Amino acid sequence: MNSFKHNLLYVATVSVLATSYVAPSFAQEEAMETISITGVKDVNSLMPPESSSTFGFDKSLVQTPRAVTEVSADLIQAYGLRSVDDLVRMTPGAMTSSFFGIQGQMDIRGESADNYFRGFRRIANPGAFKTNIRGAKNLEVMRGPVSPLYGTGSVGGQLNYSPKSAKSDATKYIESTTGQIDLTLGSYSQKILAGEVGTPFTIGDKQGGIYVFAEVEDSGSFYHGSEPSNEMLQVAIDLDISDSTTMEMGFQAQTSDSIQVPDWNRVTQDLIDKGTYITGAAPVRNSDNPIGADRLLPQESGFVTPAAPYFINSSFSGVGSFCSAGTEDNSNFVYNGNLLSCPGAPGFIDGYALTNPGTTQIDHKTTFIDDIDFADSTAFTAYLDFTTYLDGDITWKNQFYYDYMDHTKYQSWGFTADYPGAKAAEFRSSFKFDSQGDGYFIQHITGLSIRNEDLDYNHGFYDETFDFRDITVGPTANDRIDWAVEDPYEDATILYDEDNNPIGIEGTVRRNYNEEQVSTVTNLGLFYLADITLDQWSILLGGRYDYYDVESEDQAVSLLGIPFGDGLVHSDTESVLSYNISVSYMMDSGLIPYATYAKSNSLTTNQLGGIVPNSVDNGEYIADSDLIEMGIKYTSDDESIYAALSIYDQEKTDRIGETQALVAVSSKGIEFEARALLNEYFSITTTATHIETTEVSDNALAIINGAEFAKCRMGCSLTKYMVDVLVAIAQFL
Description:
This protein has 5 helices and 39 strands. By secondary structure, the chain is mainly β. The strands form 8 sheets. The chain has an 18-stranded antiparallel sheet, with no helix packed on it. A hairpin with a 3-residue loop joins strand 24 and strand 25. The longest helix has 7 residues, at 707-713. Mean pLDDT is 85; it is low at 1-11, 18-32, 34-38 and 709-733.
């Protein structure tokens, strides 16, 4: 077992915002002068809104017994927030989660967070495209499990995006046409153009409104060779169909062209401290094969042989080695006292060494980028809601949701991904009603949801190599890895012996997808929530029953045609129960202490959110978690101060898709945020976080490359670096 412990202490982040404001008005009467103090106007909507949709109730954020941060559209504009990474400045417990530089989702409480759109979970986006936030009417970041109303998701937390619309609040439309155009010009050729317009309209005697938001970015970057671009169009239409029914419909469409960047390679402490970079060329492995004259084909970057296990793609890599946890019997490498099993090492490992190594100074703008790298995405999200107000103050809501993503990328260090036409669709029907009696008032929400996901996940990452490229020189034919293709055997034939065992390859084989997982998930959910008010006490109860019907198949084969999986479609059905209970007390001073316990379930998935075939038969595709959270919130009488402090302890166990490792994660932390309107000109926000996350794993994945061996060529002890050779060790959470 391997245990990793991370202590993260974040010093408080403080933002001060100057705002323009018209001075308070004064009224004068005939007999005396009366001064009317209107208070400080919240020009940028800094303070949390009066009603929060975190759990689906009409309940203010200060009264919601969970750690939640809300960011309004005005605050997004005032603070210049552009992506999910920028929200870290506003959200305690959150960390940037740029996946090789692409800002797809947040990390919250040590876990990758989910993106939600109007309360519906989107297809996973760890590094497909940048998640824009400028078109949001408001954003909610809840730490910990999602409300039972919204389904199951990451136990770390979620970002819920509500698009701008023509409604000024839940029932009122904007009164006239409004709009604006924003142009952002910045250093490194930054160019972002955004425009929005909203207008009310009538159909017969029925009121409606439409709001359109669009954004286009075509920018350069601080980093040489990185030029991200994306386009987004968002439309929201609201209409009163009858006196009792309203309709909301709309969509968000986005295209993105970007690249993933691993920044520096050949990382040493001298590089970090002094900018001293190890130079040197990769070993010559490229042949005169015309199919891949500018890159390394599989037969050049590795040695394809039946002697190599299928799980390393039937090839001993000549550019790096994937290692897993070893035992006394099979280990052939040691790192920091941990036994590792590295196929091909140490016999192959000296072959990774660089030729003519030396040193030079390097700046931060020079990174591992190739001009043929790309990451292209198309995303489309649509919704249709019907809300009917029935007799007895009952609200019946029927919601339809659809999410689509098509993504493909290639990075010349050896990674290709293809997610063709990933789809998710969900229907949710809910009833909301009240009941009351002597000394109590209860809000109820109950209903059901049906969700279907159809995901095709393809990854090619043999042979990845980071250290081969001298980034001061740029890409060469000896460090650029071939990209994966759908038919790697177009110019190759697998040879078999008389017993039908593969013995080699005739011709030229192309790079294969060594992960091809096709999965479908159908989820039926039943939920009930109650918000009970007893004088100054409040009790929030929620429960959800989920029934899962899953199918998953591993279709990938190695370079010698050996299946990575068993060739079967794995199917299973499971039923799970999630619930939460919270108790809070509203003190006369404005302080509201609370305590929460939540037991939730989430899916163990690959990076696209699909089910891993190996996790189906034993039911390990469902991971449960426990959360204990206590906190205290405060808002002043004049609503010029808001503060929240939370302490939590959360545990989760699941099986990781990339390595099949069983990982137990324990996270404890303290989170604090405060917002204050100091006067008519200045406001302030501050956050502070202390997190301690411990991971215990039965497996780990290491990648061996050649920088340390380059140092050995410069005179250091080979024996010493046989123990301390790993340039990067990746523990998949």
